[in-house]
Write a structure and sequence with these properties.
Elements: E1 4-9, E2 12-17, H1 28-43, E3 49-53, E4 58-60, H2 65-70, H3 79-89, E5 94-98, E6 101-103, H4 105-108, E7 115-119, E8 123-125, H5 139-147, H6 149-158, E9 162-163, H7 164-170, E10 175-177, H8 179-194, H9 198-209, H10 212-230, H11 234-244, H12 249-261
Parallel strand pairs: 2-3, 3-5, 4-6, 5-7, 6-8, 7-10
Antiparallel strand pairs: 1-2, 8-9
Helix pairs in contact: 1-3, 3-10, 5-6
Length: about 260
């Protein structure tokens, strides 16, 4: 089974995250595949638009923490950063079809999409503070710019999930549809873009962004530096340990019984 699927048809590049057993959490290999697919889409003159999607039950659960924790301490660019830079460099329309959970980078990547369509079951979550970490993918820059400081602080500091309807109200998604209609709708809209003038769309995207690519990359570097520092804190280590080594049912049951007995 391919964990990243890629299909190019009549100008549309369809990228699928296909790892249902882990709610489409991303591994290093998956980041590399996604980054390469985006680089190829940018270079291929036949590709006019890109749609990224998960399944009807999950868009992307963020990093695969077990894979992330197993990576050796390395100098240079992590695969996830390679993916982020490929997204930022894409000058063609990027659309997302979102169902179920969009967590961490699964949510922050949506801030870089030109159009986002969500299913009624979709939930966006930026849980960095709960993991003892800071945001990534320039989301600390993009969310305040889009929502204002207070609303962005609510999402980034509290880390609570945002349902599809609230995400639509906040302007984080363009439309909310029944789950089974999300991907077909995104594809239909993407095909309209494929039929439009490619130079015009590239110019519109460039003008709308102003000159943010350099700013996004600078913020990306700042976030990555803080992220690496925070990974070494007791809070982050404890959060990762709790995720990777959950208590067994018997241990959890015994702790609950002991608490009730006190």
């Amino acid at each position: 089974m391919h964990e990243i699927t890629r299909e190019v048809d009549d100008g549309l590049c369809l990228l699928g995250i296909n790892r249902p057993s882990r709610r489409n959490a991303l591994t290093s290999d998956m980041y590399i595949e996604l980054a390469q697919a985006l680089v190829e889409a940018e270079r291929d003159e036949k590709v006019r638009a890109v749609v990224i999607h998960g399944s009807e039950s999950a868009f992307c659960a963020g990093n695969d923490n077990a894979d992330f924790a197993s990576l050796p301490s390395i100098e240079g660019e992590r695969p996830s950063v390679r993916f982020m830079k490929a997204v930022i460099a894409l000058g063609k329309p990027l659309l997302a079809a979102v169902n179920g959970s969009a967590v961490g980078i699964g949510a922050t990547m949506l801030l870089h999409c030109d159009l986002v369509f969500a299913g009624s079951s979709a939930k966006l979550s930026f849980p960095f503070s709960k993991l003892g970490l800071c945001p990534e993918f320039a989301s600390s820059l993009l969310l305040p710019a889009a929502l204002g400081h207070q609303r962005a602080a609510e999402l980034l500091m509290l880390g609570d999930a945002v349902g599809a309807a609230d995400a639509r109200t906040l302007g984080l998604v363009n439309a909310v549809l029944p789950p089974q209609e999300v991907l077909p709708h995104a594809v239909a809209v993407a095909r309209r873009l494929c039929a439009a003038s490619a130079p015009a769309l590239r110019s519109i995207k460039s003008l709308m962004r102003g000159e943010p690519a350099a700013a996004h990359l600078r913020r990306l570097e700042q976030e990555n530096l803080m992220f690496a520092q925070l990974l070494q804190t007791p809070q982050a280590k404890a959060a990762f340990d709790a995720f990777l080594n959950p208590p067994s049912p018997s241990t959890s049951s015994r702790q609950t019984h002991e608490q009730r007995s006190r």
